Amino acid sequence: MRHCMWLFGLCVLLVSAPAQVRLSPQEQREGFRLLFNGRNLQGWKVYAGANWKVERGELVGPSDSAGWIGTTTEYDNFILQGEYWIDKGETHESNSGIFIRAKGTPTPWNDGYEIQISLQDPKNPTGSIYGRVPTNLERMREIAPEKEWNRFEIRACGSRIQVTINGEMVQDADLHDHARGYIGFQQHHSGVTVRFRNLRIKTLKPEECDEGWRPLFNGKDLTGWFPTGYARWFVRDGAIVGEGSVGHLFTEQTFSDFELRAMIRIRNLREGMPKPNNGIYFRAIPNPEDRNSWPRGYEAQVYNHEGTDYITGSLYNRVRASRLLTRDGDWFSMRIRAKGDHIQIFVNGQKVVDTRNSDFQSGHIAIQCHDPFTVIETRDIYIRPL
């Protein structure tokens, strides 16, 4: 904005100054520091493509080329906060991304993790961990519109990565490929305008990543679990795999009030078979009338298709999930919180069920293999008492 002020007979044009980049006293007490000073590119390096600019306290991508800029310092465990603004212009897609734990190569989406920014890519919409854990395109169009400033927070602690956009968690995943690297931003293709501002970071100690969680699965074998039914259960690539028939795999321990989280993927055994169907049981026991039949307890449904059946995240036969956020063949995260009669279910960090039910108070955790047509993979299974 420009103003004209008469001073000693001269008209002096006053141009609005860039926004001040600073931390609030609360942020300072919490341990945050500025990642970008808003004045220059000190502490940053262009790893591929053309130079980025600083305008009005914002980090601005080179809209006439592609590439990425990153920090010169590597980070492992941290909370990253900031805002982004994107406009696809006359191009086909508003594509950008936030890189974490990346190597200084031309392909940080492979040599690190990319938190995607795109409202046109159905396979990897905004909030997806690119090529690894997708979000839902329709939902992300509601949460993070283009041509507006969108607030983001990325928490990377050990294998767990959580992404929040405009106050709503859209990702809560466990990944083990990259433990440390640079933070960076992408200019995906020319013609797109992308801006970042108010970038701040808080580094975390390893003990701050624990939060009381403990593993239910050792990643190697089925120690601590027992099967019922006729399914085959085995461990492959760090995941429990169930296939071949109807069956359930139970924890030897029982639980009452707890929070459980896991990464899940389902698919058909072969093409042309019925849609894959599965579930995670909790506060469950083997059926006392027929141990090889359906357990007694609650089931958090895994079924990635709209229709007459309960969709993924539903409390089966009781409460339908508020929205479908998953698809066959891709990993997603599920978190179940049961305290007394209060039951909540989260899918990819988003709450889809919040209800009261007192039918079952205690029991096992169990993975279901619903039918001979479905393959279910489950990994990174953690629990903590409440």
How would you portray this structure in words?
By secondary structure, this protein is mainly β. The protein folds into two domains: 189 residues, Sandwich (Jelly Rolls); 172 residues, Exo-inulinase, domain 1 (Jelly Rolls, Sandwich). It is 3% helix and 46% strand. The strands form five sheets. Strands 3, 5, 6, 8, 11, 12, 13 and 15 form an eight-stranded antiparallel sheet that branches. Strands 16, 18, 19, 21, 24, 25, 26 and 28 form an eight-stranded antiparallel sheet that branches. The protein is elongated, with a radius of gyration of 24 Å. The protein starts with a strand and ends with a strand.
Q: Overall mean pLDDT score?
A: 92
**Largest sheet properties:** 8 strands, antiparallel
Enter the CATH topology name of the largest domain.
Jelly Rolls
Strand share of the residues?
over 45%
CATH architecture of the largest domain: Sandwich
Oligomer: single chain
Structural class: mainly beta
In short:
The protein has 386 residues and is mainly beta. It is 3% helix and 46% strand. It has two domains: 21-209, Exo-inulinase, domain 1 (Jelly Rolls, Sandwich), CATH 2.60.120.560; 214-385, Exo-inulinase, domain 1 (Jelly Rolls, Sandwich).
Features:
386 residues, Jelly Rolls, mainly beta, 3% helix, 8-stranded antiparallel β-sheet, 28 strands
SSE inventory with pairings:
Blueprint: E1 2-7, E2 10-15, H1 25-30, E3 33-34, E4 44-48, E5 53-55, E6 58-60, E7 67-71, E8 78-87, E9 96-102, E10 113-117, H2 137-143, E11 150-157, E12 160-165, E13 168-174, E14 182-187, E15 193-203, E16 214-215, E17 225-229, E18 232-236, E19 239-243, E20 247-251, E21 258-268, E22 278-285, E23 296-302, E24 332-339, E25 342-347, E26 350-356, E27 364-369, E28 374-385
Antiparallel strand pairs: 1-2, 3-15, 4-7, 5-6, 6-15, 7-14, 8-11, 8-15, 9-10, 9-14, 11-12, 12-13, 16-28, 17-20, 18-19, 19-28, 20-27, 21-24, 21-28, 22-23, 22-27, 24-25, 25-26
